[in-house]
Write a structure and sequence with these properties.
The protein has twelve helices and no strands. Helix 7 packs antiparallel against helix 10.
Length: 292
């Protein structure tokens, strides 16, 4: 049961990073791929119907950690209290910017909030997990640079997949520019993990670069998503041994009765959540047209 819930939590975190990864990228890139208010609005509309649903994955992952592995939850959020707080601030600022942008006369502060609120968590999540694994400031900075650049590439490919015209072309250029930085940073950041998933993640990022060059946005997005999944797999394989220094997975876990009750709750609710989110992506699957 302990192993099962570790896999479930790893799955939830992975889903969050895949989905919020392109959200963060779009939030940072929207001002750069737009030359008019209509183009900027169209870029943000690509994530408009889904960004808040994507954040549910984070809430669920943290809630599952709290219930299934309270010692892991307490140790992680205590040790990284300040960066976690900054992540929360970034998410709040981004959410306010996205919600208010269409309701106020001037959009500059909303756009700045969206961009900053996307960049801050994109960097900090990588810094937190890298420091957790390797315990050094240099590793944290490299990890943050890795997740930030991967989000930029992931978001640029998503924009190219979901838009038309000039925005789509600029998004492809942005993806190629991001890849020039992302792939070398990935080699440096993932080499320390020394696992096959980490090596495969670097290959997936290189494949995404070639695919976006050939204007195969759908396959390129699949490749960037695969890179995020493989990176998360490499990270959680390391955390499976020791989720925190001096703490084993068994020591961090709740009792058998608690895990059993959680399993029944998860069995009853998780399929409906997955079906609903899959349905929402299917409904909003078409490209966003630039109005005006």
């Amino acid at each position: 049961m302990v192993e099962l819930w570790f896999v479930i939590i790893a799955f939830l975190w992975t889903g969050y990073f895949v989905l919020e990864g392109f959200d963060f990228g779009v939030g940072m890139l929207a001002p750069l791929v737009s030359r008019s208010a209509a183009e900027h609005r169209a870029a943000l509309q690509t994530i408009g119907p889904v960004w808040d649903g994507n954040e549910v994955w984070l809430i669920t992952a943290v809630g599952a950690m709290f219930a299934a592995f309270p010692a892991w939850y307490a140790g992680l959020f205590s040790a990284y209290y300040l960066p976690m707080l900054l992540v929360l601030v970034g998410l709040i600022v981004r959410g306010v910017g996205l919600e208010w942008r269409g309701k106020v006369a001037g959009t500059l502060w909303c756009d700045l909030g969206i961009a900053a609120g996307s960049a801050l968590p994109a960097f900090l999540w990588g810094a937190i997990f890298a420091h957790l694994l390797f315990g050094s400031t240099s590793a944290a900075l490299l990890g943050g640079a890795f997740t930030l650049t991967v989000c930029l590439l992931h978001g640029a490919v998503f924009l190219a997949l979901k838009t038309t015209g000039h925005v789509r072309r600029r998004a492809r250029v942005a993806a190629l520019a991001a890849a020039v930085v992302t792939v070398p940073v990935a080699v440096a950041a993932l080499s320390g993990l020394g696992t096959f998933p980490a090596l495969a993640a670097t290959g997936a990022l290189a494949a995404a670069t070639a695919l976006i060059w050939r204007r195969r946005e759908g396959w390129a997005f699949t490749a960037t998503a695969a890179a995020v999944v493989l990176t998360a797999l490499a990270v959680f394989l390391q955390l499976r041994v020791r989720p925190l220094p001096g703490l084993t997975l068994a020591e961090a876990a709740s009792g058998a009765y608690t895990l059993t009750v959680l399993s029944w709750i998860g069995l009853a609710t998780l399929p409906f959540i997955l079906l609903y989110q899959g349905w929402s992506y299917w409904v909003f699957r078409k490209r966003v047209q630039v109005a005006g």
